[in-house]
Sequence to fold (740 residues):
Amino acid sequence: MSEVLLSGGRVVDPNGERAADVRVLDGVVAEVGERLAPGAGALVLDASGAIVTPGLVDLQVHFREPGREDAEDVESGARAAALGGCTAVVCMPNTEPPLDDAAVVEAVLERGRRSACDVRAAGCITKGRAGRELAPLGELYDLGVRIFTDDGDCVADANVMRRAFEYAAALPGAVLAQHAEDPALVRGGHMNEGEWSARLGIPGRPVEAESTIVARDLALARLTGGRYHVLHMSAAQSAHLVREAKAQGVRVTAECTPQHLVLTDEACATFDPVFKMNPPLRSRADVDGMRAALVDGTIDAIATDHAPHPPEAKEQPFEEAPPGMLGVETALAVVWTTLVEPGVVTPERAFAALSWAPARIAGLDADGHGVPIEPGRPANLCVFDPSHTWVVESHALASKSRNSPWEGWTLTGRVRHTILHGRPTVRDGALA
Amino acid sequence: MKHLLSVEDFADRAGIEAMLDLTGHFVAVSQRDIRKVPALRGKTVVSLFYEDSTRTRLSFETAAKRLSADVMTFSVSSSSVNKGESLLDTVQTIEAMGVDAIVVRHSAAGAAARVASWSGASVVNAGDGRHEHPTQALLDAYTLRSHRGPSLDGCRVAIVGDVRNSRVARSDVRMFHALGCEITLVGPPTMMPERLDGWPVTVDYDLDDVCGEVDVLYMLRIQRERIDQALFPSVREYASRWGLTAARMARCKPDTLVMHPGPMNRGVEIAAEVADSARSLVTEQVANGVAVRMAVLWTLLGSGGPIV
Fold:
């Protein structure tokens, strides 16, 4: 029997917070209580001064496999995610070829089985992410796919989106996730439209490109009774629409990235494309709107949109570089440093948004992610030291790429151990 | 000053005025029989142009040669860029040959700033996307100052046209404001900046309201492609509402000056008879461009000794 004992920490999970050791036997939580004694041969992991929480779940990562393994692959991405405290991730389908086909999805899942995380795949809504014909949602669903999206691109055709909502009603637990940016309104744009784009002469992507799609999709979700998830929501006016729709009982959830909760479009004044992503970094007012929406639960989850690009892709002029930022390895520490420590959100709210809320959205709670730490539950855990300070150095991150917008930031809090199905994937801050 | 990437690289008005005064010395040099000084002998200046440009490129290269610098020309159409070489690799290649200044023209905002971040050489922005064209703004200021200066305090300037997509407008607004001018932007609302926070300007959509009031009408080039982007309906409609026609010019004050960065679309933003009139400074702007660029290169690369 293999035993792991997490000793001396404070447990934070959907049931609240308490001081407790956690005994894990054969991948399952066996006992939660104070001053547990290790059994013979137990691996004792120090959790003193640390928070023991359900493993983090990242709803939106781009591990670039298949197609761009030079930027990232499932193995390297999962290692980075584990170092960030994740036990499960959902890979976005904008790969080359895209995840619109059962064989391609199965190949990604197979790669995931040998990685440091439980890797799930999101499937395309439309074939080739072209926005016209439905992808084989049912075949992908049978492989365990629960999130469908054309992420990277918006499903612009309202009728296609409507039919996808209708069709997905036959697939219990399935959710349509939208990259909400109207392609006509963002055409040619490279950063948030506003004060800074006007000054810098970089064509803009207005917040209305997001909010109009969110408004349309919420109407379609109302019409069809479908489940809808807003990926990387960035605009205060979108949050307002989601808040209203939730109050009316529309089946909608929303996520936000750490960067949209912290950074503003002013960063683009450096012309460094490391600050380029879609949707773009917004104004201070939108950042404040995202924070308010996180606090009041309008935003359910924090996801990273981890989007690696090789150095040469980002060593270009801003308008020519591809959008996207690294995130899996820094998300929790960024949230802790910028939102929890200053008192914007409570630790419980932060962990809910990083673990159990996204787990429920993706149906990963059924696989033992983001579940309460109690006897009989699968042991997918994160042990986080909230007092460890460190400086982000892109070259020291586990990702194959270097495009972290947090380069040089001093962060407070770091993952000490990550436990996947009872085995450490990260131990004392390093890959096990 | 190591680079000139933006008008904002000048710390203050005095810095700009010092550059304009220096330009005056080089205008004098350009009027000599032998229009060449040895100031930058042994220095190498590369012009790296990713966009077609005749006048700006010729102007920079002429300026460098009149300062006795060696000039290398990197022309995109005949270069390895067509073989997929990145801007970074190109800059590193040029740098490896040993250069002192790189003059960059690129279609993307901030391209010159990127080059400056990768290179040990001085970088001069010769136009980066819709962002800035600081030497154009210097030559515009020099030209205007030679007619209305030395102080431009209170000089009323209207910048007319596609301000939103214009690097010239972004640099000129910063430049004219720094020199004390009052600026009005004129054009269709689709061509005004999306947001005016931090822009020291007023906006007016009616050229007829403005043209009788101002000292300078700075006309921007209109690109026909903007019709496809739904910025304006037709050249005819644009010319009738925002073009500087002879009839409009007749309603201006008798000493109102006309400027244009070139190349002009005669009959669109500016009527031929206005462009060729005595109140048009267009040719003078071009002539002053060489001296301005001599002043900039001498400032960035010179030893600080006399010009000779």
